[in-house]
Amino acid sequence: MPHHRRIAATTGATLLLLAATACSADRTTVGPLSFRAHDSPIEVTYNSTSVNGCHRIGLPRGAAHVENNTLVDVILYRTRDCRKLDKQDGTYIPTETSNVTAPHTLPWRSFSVVH
Fold it and tell me: What DSSP line would sit under 35-72, residue for residue?
């Protein structure tokens, strides 16, 4: 392959990689993700949350109820930084579903988006 074709191929592959990375960096959830604490009327709803990273649930006592009306699945954690407790995986919440913690268990404190 001539030298100028190799440079063009390498440049094209690099631009494609940068474009894919940039699109992923700006991606967000579509639709509301709502949380409520146990026996509380207060609800916190997230819209257009980044699909990257860990997100704290903005309820002082954590969440006991979740309603995922987004177009993506989420994983809920009982820690504030999306760490697993005692080798337990997070709670997987598929799109367009809801869930409630079992009585006398720790609340959810953070979540990440499956993408």
Answer: EE-TT---EEEEES-BSSSEEE---TT-BSEEEE-SSS
